[in-house]
Structure formats: C-alpha cells, structure tokens
Amino acid sequence: xxxxxFESNLLRASLARCFEQPPELFNITRVADxxxxxxxxxxxxxxIEDAQELGRWPSTVILKIPDTGIEGGVKPGDALTTxxxxxxxxxxxxxxxxxxLKAPSVYGIDVSGEQTWIWMQDMARPLAVVWRPSLxxxxxxxxxxxxxxxxxxxxxLSQLDGLSRDGWALYAHYIPACxxxxxxxxxxxxxxxxxxRDEIAGLHQCLEAFDWADGQMRRLKxxxxxxxxxxxxxxxxxxxxxxxxxxxxxxFAPHGCDIATFSSVYKLFGGFTDEDFSTFERSMxxxxxxxxxxxxxTEVNASEVQRxxxxxxxxxxxxxxxxxxxxxxxxxxxxxxAEQSRSRTDIRIGCAHVLREFERTLSWESR
Length: 367
Fold this sequence. Notes:
Helix content: 40-55%
CATH superfamily of the largest domain: Aminoglycoside phosphotransferase (APH), C-terminal lobe
CATH architecture of the largest domain: Alpha-Beta Complex
Largest sheet: 5 strands, antiparallel
Distance between the termini: 58 Å
Order of helices and strands: HEEEHEEEHHHHHHEEEEHHHH
CATH topology of the largest domain: Aminoglycoside 3'-phosphotransferase, Chain: A, domain 2
Shape: globular
Number of domains: 2
Radius of gyration: 21 Å
C-alpha cells in the first residue's frame, strides 16, 4: 500500500467496476502482499467489508497484476508471459476444464492504460495443503486431465494467440550467465564445495547441449501444459479437485513437462518426501502415465514421458539454477542463512540429477 498505484480510492473504483456496484459500498480494511519474491507480477489479498452486509461479494478477494513494470529477479525470455493468463481467462477456455481440475473464479478484469488488474477468487483454503508423496501422486494423476482438456479443445486452443510453445527454452537466455557463474565457482572458495572441477566441466557440457535438447523436445508428442505446475500454484478442494493458479506459462509441450516442473522444485518449495529426486519423479511419471490411459490415451510411452522430464531438467531446470539461482547465491542476495542453505541444496541436487542423466540422454540419438 506504499505505492500510489494501490491507493484505496483506486482499489475501490476498480472493485466497483468488476462487481458493478457503487465504490462507496466497498470498505477495504487490509491489503496483504502475497507476491512471489522474484516475479514481475504482484498478487494481493484484499479484506473487504460489505457496508450494507448483503453478502454481494466475498470478504476476501485476490488482485493479480501480471505486469507492474518492476523488473523481477527472474526474467522469462517470453514477452507474452504478462498477457497470457488474461487471454486464457477472456477465451473462457478454463471454464471447460474437466472434472477434477479447477481454476479460480474470476470476478472481473480491469484494464487501465498498459496495466491489467485481474480480480479473482481467494483460494487460501485449497492451497493450505501439506504436500506428501500420496498427494503429490494424486496431483500427477490430475495433471493427466490436462490432456483430456487438450483433446476436447484442441481446435480452440490452437487458435488462441500467445500460448507458450517452447517452455523448456523460457530461460535459455541465461546460458551465458550460467557459464560465467560456473567459472566464478572455480575462483571462490566459499561456494566451491557445490561442485568439483569435473562436475563443473560436465555442467558446461550440459549447457552447450541446448540446441540438441531443443530439437529432441520438438520431436516428442505434445499436449497442453499448465507451465508452472508446482505446489505453490496448486491446491485441493473438498472434492479433491486439483486447484491450479497462475496460467501465465500455459501452452503446448511434450507429455510430462508439468511433472518435471513439479518434481524439480517440490522439496525447495516445502514438499515432504524421503525419496531421492529420481525415485520421486519416477513415481510421479508412473502415476501420470497410468492416468493418461484412464482418460483414453492409448499410446502412452512412459520412456518418452521420462525423456521429456529429463530434457526439461537439462534446459529449464539447469538454466534457472545456474543462472538466476546461482547468481543470487554468489552475490549474497539471499535474505538469510536458511534461504541460502535451501538454495545451495536445491542447486546441488538438481544439477547432480542432470549430470547423472546426461550421458543416457545422448544415447537416444542412436535408438
């Protein structure tokens, strides 16, 4: 609320336009900033009193501003990220999600100049999930319903301008910075324990394989993906439908890419499991493939789904970890020691997984 943009009169006026009510009926008692720390978008929860107590609107609503013009710590190489969710909402396609999947209800979209304000349902209760392996596998099964959605709406989806078509390359512009950060590790004693010299050489090689990995991804069978499928964007309602927030990266990608995103940052974002990275992901892939068959996908190739996951880690995951992730660690930008420790562990485990799988991925060329 420090910024003029969020002055109470502006908020009331925008709410009034969405609910088609006089602005004086809205008494905004509190605004909580829920924004992720590295994103350009801003998300707020507004607490509202109904002056006439007629129950014409909920007591809390979410305001999402996809592009505030403020540079975030992570910059996607996709100019449409800030517009995509609005376009999906306006297409009404998300209303056609199959049973078992839900997107938040949208009360209205208010456009002023170059800025878009999206007013939507507060999903705090479904998001209050303690994520454990059983629920993670439930989410993997529900994720397969996106393929059912794709088959039933393929024509409309293909005609919707701006959907992502190469999400694995979203952070490829960080590759030069990734190389620089790896070289910097060799000169810094404090962080050198992340990787030894052989591992650093191997990670350089992985980064240089981007063009090959990009070509592999384009050859695999594609479906519709959420694009940012992780536990901070997911919840479960009372009927165990999977609630999915933030569709800014939605589009087309090989089967399994959403599963790769989920497993990639599952522990970093607070998910619980005693399984190692590879075992956890294999169990997610198995559940996803089983559910694909249930929704009528007869030609399910689990090895290709696992291949897409590995390629996703080799591109999207590696670029994020060794680009903005390692940059923040090396610069001391982390807020506290606990955050530094979590980031170090995530970078180490994620990159170790890529190094283990890289040689095997190269053998696909000869199959």
